[in-house]
Design goal:
With about 375 residues, the chain is of the alpha/beta class. The chain has 2 domains: about 110 residues, Aspartate Aminotransferase, domain 1 (Alpha-Beta Complex), CATH 3.90.1150; about 220 residues, Aspartate Aminotransferase, domain 2. Helix content is about 40%, strand content about 15%. It has 11 helices and 12 strands. Strands 2-8-7-6-5-3-4 form a 7-stranded mixed sheet, with helices on both faces. The chain has a 3-stranded antiparallel sheet with strand order 9-10-12. Strand 5, helix 6 and strand 6 form a beta-alpha-beta unit. Helix 1 packs antiparallel against helix 8, helix 5 runs parallel beside helix 6 and helix 9 packs parallel to helix 11. The chain is globular. It starts with about 25 loop residues before the first strand and ends with a helix. The structure holds pyridoxal-5'-phosphate. Pyridoxal-5'-phosphate (PLP) binds next to helix 3.
Length: about 375
């Protein structure tokens, strides 16, 4: 039988496995940081209306520049993220993963490098690899905050072309302060200058304000967002960025023509009409996230402070064995490979209760 490695694939892809959390059929799935609440029925109806309208013109290519959608996203950011932005500063694609890929195709690539501070979102490294961009793993402190001095030093030495800062960070939940972003931005400009990408996929769940205002006057700073989490629309595949208009112009050089289908644009526009209802679910999830942190600590777990819709907890001698025990109790969480730790997504109150019961059982077995 022919295997992948028998094919004439690129050398750097040899022996690698595709990214993806297990999609197992278990009662409680808290492993991929999805929003547990289905879209509200009035929004489902609005999507059907908007998609029906779009369907009447599916013989035509969609708006290549997605102007109406980018205008809607710009309004959303202006209203919620602390800086007035226009559609010329916003770009949208199929999930923020595609936004990140377009950025790396534009600013990374063969002979160039990107840096992230690990543990962090593993797709930053994987998309770098996929675009032929060299990957540099930067340091973090023991409490998972970014070690600013060490980070600036490695930026000065290695002079990466792209710097990733994830706030709140996945999988640790740690938010990054504006002063840290500014320090790294200055270091990156002095070293190269390079593009600094702030991945704010979980921003709406944070106690801290968005880092969006920092893009003003900083043409090499990009903020990446998604509708997969706060908008409860992971299945939609809609991510976006905000940056200087020149960055938006630059990614046009690599985007596929008509990359964002008319159906996607129509659905995202419908979701934006229901922003306030969807942000109400975010409030409920923040309350549940804080409860998870409290109760896990009361059970005796070591829990990392979280500004996201998930919580990192431990410590386990063998995190994978702990993951398996929770799965045996019908609860799927994520083993991100952080030694001694697992990550749980905040679910509905009932799902979280089931998770907490499973952890209590796990801790009992551990101390028995
Ligand atoms: C930090 C971070 N960025 C980006 C993404 C990708 O989100 P999407 O491609 O669904 O927009 C995720 C998804 O889990 C994430 O955790």
């Amino acid at each position: 039988m022919t295997g992948i490695d028998d094919l004439p694939i690129r050398d750097e892809l040899r022996g690698k496995s595709p990214y993806g959390a297990p999609q197992l059929d278990v009662p409680v799935r808290l492993n991929t940081n999805e929003n547990p609440y289905p879209l509200p029925e009035p929004l489902v109806e609005r999507i059907a209306e908007r998609v029906a309208e779009a369907a009447r013109q599916l013989n035509r290519y969609p708006d290549r520049d997605a102007v109406e959608l980018r205008t809607g996203l710009a309004h959303y950011l202006t209203r919620t993220a602390g800086l007035a932005v226009g559609p010329e500063q916003v770009w949208a694609a199929n999930g923020s993963n595609e936004v990140l890929q377009q950025l790396l195709q534009t600013f990374g690539g063969p002979g160039r490098t990107a840096i992230g501070f690990e543990p962090s979102y593993s797709m930053h490294a994987l998309i770098s690899r996929g675009t032929g961009t060299g990957w540099i793993s930067g340091p973090r402190n023991d409490d998972f905050t970014i070690d600013v001095e060490a980070a600036c030093q490695v930026i000065a030495e290695r002079k990466p072309d792209v710097v990733f800062i994830t706030s709140p960070n996945n999988p640790t939940g740690t938010a990054v302060g504006a002063e840290t972003v500014l320090a790294l931005y200055e270091a990156a400009q002095a070293a190269k200058p390079s593009l600094v990408v702030v991945d704010e996929a979980y921003a709406e769940f944070s106690h801290r304000p968005s880092l969006l205002p920092l893009i003003e006057g900083r043409p090499h700073l990009v903020l990446s967002r998604t509708m997969s989490k706060a908008f409860g629309a992971a299945g939609l595949r809609l991510g976006y960025l905000a940056a200087d208009p020149a960055v938006v112009d630059a990614v046009q050089l690599v985007r596929l023509p008509y990359h964002l289908s008319a159906v996607t644009q129509a659905t995202a526009l419908a979701a934006l009409e229901h922003t306030d209802t969807l942000l109400g679910y975010v409030d409920a999830l923040k309350t549940e996230r804080d409860r998870l942190v409290r109760e896990l600590r009361a059970i005796g777990c070591d829990v990392t402070d979280s500004d996201a819709n998930f919580v990192q907890f431990g410590r386990f001698e063998d995190a994978h064995a702990a993951w398996q025990t929770l799965l045996d109790h019908g609860v799927l969480v994520r083993d991100n490979g952080v030694p001694g730790r697992l990550r749980v997504t905040a679910g509905t109150p009932t799902e979280n209760d089931a998770f907490l019961d499973a952890v209590r059982e796990l801790m009992k077995e551990k101390s028995a």
